Amino acid sequence: MSDKAIQVTGLKKRYDSTSALSSVTFSVEKGEMFGLIGPDGAGKTTLIRILTSLLDPDEGTCRLLGISVHEDPKSIRKIIGYMPQRFSLYPDLTVGENLRFFADLFRVPRKERLKKTEELLEFSRLEPFVKRRAGALSGGMKQKLALSCALIHTPEILVLDEPTTGVDPVSRREFWSILKSLKKSGVSILITTPYMDEAERCDRIALIHHGEILAMGTARSVIDQFSGSIFSVSGPDLLGLSRWFKRQLRSDQVRILGDRVQLNLFSSTEKNVSDLVKDAKASGQVIDAFGRENPELEDTFITLIAEREKRNDQTISS
Amino acid sequence: MTRPSPPDPSVDLTKNGLAVTVRNLSRRFGEFVAVDDISFDVKKGEIFGFLGANGAGKTTTIRMLTGLLEPSSGEGQVGGFDIHKDYEKIKTRIGYMSQKFSLYDDLKVVENLYFFGGIYGLSREHIRMRVAELDQSLNLLAVADRKTMSLPLGFKQRLALACAILHKPPILFLDEPTGGVDPIARRYFWDLISTLAGDGTTVFVTTHYMDEAEYCHRLSIMYKGKIIEMDSPSAIKKKYNSVSIEDIFIKLVDR
């Protein structure tokens, strides 16, 4: 028995002329919560489809608890629970009927099914809504029902594709506390999310972009890879300031926040902040204050992607 | 017949520099009080964020301010027009974009733009000029002939925004505009919003993403129909001694 929940090695996948995954390698320990973050089109969903045996890779291997996804998809489907991005329950069936349907699909024996259903309804707090049609549930409740259906056959590995998109913050917190208790009970979890605060709750994350892992580790260690600096500048005319700085830097290095303009000086930026501020003032911009800010995960993410694209541009032009 | 020329955000339609004023506004649905006696002002050029869980009353408030729903009691003005009497006029002064982008999926990008421009009474020539102008920041024309349904979410979002601001509304309502959009597309989107606001458009936005609260000049947190907190993001963080708007929000509403 392998001790890794998920072991992905050298995974490659192309669609026609575009490369969806270019040699992706990572592993997830048993009982670990692993987050995949990346922009749309980064390859997250392709990776998940390969892991869940819905798609074959061009090259590379995937093993879940030591079992090859490619060679033994039937066994794989028994050990994983998968919650796809789109709500895929039957809106005309009630909460109870949906659970029953998934239990039958996974051939959960009747006795076990009753016990499991009760357990899932309790921990998702859906018990009072068992007779409500799934289509009439709120967004947060739908997500909890979808999660419950993915758990009906007691999988050891749970794969979640953007499970909390569009769900309000209170329901999001509740959903995460459910995930935490699952993790405690030993379930290994692979999750994709566009929310940086959720990424920070994972044990480890991988930043994925154009089918390639740009950084991997704990959220803290990924933030620590950020080698540039973040500054904020404030003044009476934030729009004017941001326009001026965008002419000096790349436009993705400058953003207006409510009361300040934030500059992301990549490590490769040649200009330093005091010179920039001096030049800005010299050209008539009014700056009341500027100071350093702590980088966040999103800053690291944006920077890694921007620097990678810059490097690609240089490769193409040289 | 001459078509009406579109309003321009640089023309001040509002009294005292206020784009929206609301006093003691309430809306009941039977026994249920969806919005309960709220009052606030939004200044011209301000980005005003409305935070709240589902069912807090955010959308009901937006529907009253956009002239789609009659208030049960209270007063309000939007762009200088009374929300009880002038709700049809209000519609000429506002742009509205919701999370369920109301685009026609089987129309091409350019067809959606002309369709919405037509609804606002703009001439084809006017739409053509305005689209060219918007294209400089929105980059839509590169995919002008693509069917809307085939576009990535971030793109649809920009197209929905373009359709909402074709007629240069002085006040823009955004109802959860960024759900499901990735961080890079979200930054780009907010850069556009900040630029619009800097040029004088008033932006009224609801969001689920607490980190987006940082882009707002002022926030109001709604809970069970009431506004329970309202101030700038930095003042709110100072008051509750926390760096995370999300933590403050959860503390306020999860009690």
In short:
The complex is a heterodimer of chains A (318) and B (255). Chain A is of the alpha/beta class.
Protein architecture, described:
The complex is a heterodimer of chains A (318) and B (255). Chain A has 318 residues and is of the alpha/beta class. Chain A folds into 2 domains: 4-217, P-loop containing nucleotide triphosphate hydrolases (Rossmann fold), CATH 3.40.50.300; 229-317, Alpha-Beta Plaits, CATH 3.30.70. Helix content of chain A is 38%, strand content 26%. Chain A has 11 helices and 14 strands. Chain A has helices spanning 44-51, 73-79, 95-105, 110-123, 139-150, 169-184, 196-199, 219-224, 238-248, 273-282, 297-317, and strands spanning 4-15, 18-29, 33-37, 59-64, 67-68, 80-83, 157-161, 188-192, 204-209, 212-217, 229-234, 254-257, 260-265, 289-293. Chain A starts with a strand and ends with a helix. The mean pLDDT of chain A is 90. With 255 residues, chain B is an alpha/beta fold. Chain B has 8 helices and 10 strands. Chain B has helices spanning 58-65, 87-93, 109-119, 124-138, 153-165, 183-198, 233-239, 245-253; strands at residues 18-29, 32-43, 47-51, 73-78, 81-82, 94-98, 171-175, 202-207, 218-223, 226-231. In chain B, the strands form 2 sheets. A 6-stranded mixed sheet of chain B has the order 6-7-8-3-9-10, sandwiched between helices. A 4-stranded antiparallel sheet of chain B has the order 2-1-4-5, covered by helices on one side. In chain B, helix 3 (109-119) runs parallel beside helix 5. The termini of chain B are far apart. Mean pLDDT of chain B is 88; it is low at 1-13. The A-B interface holds A 38-41, 138-140, 162, 165-173, 194-197, 237-240, 242, 251-252, 255-259, 298, 301-302, 305 and B 47, 52-55, 99, 152-154, 176, 179-185, 187, 190-191, 194-195, 197-199, 208-211, 214-218, 232-234, 244, 246, 249-250, 253-254.
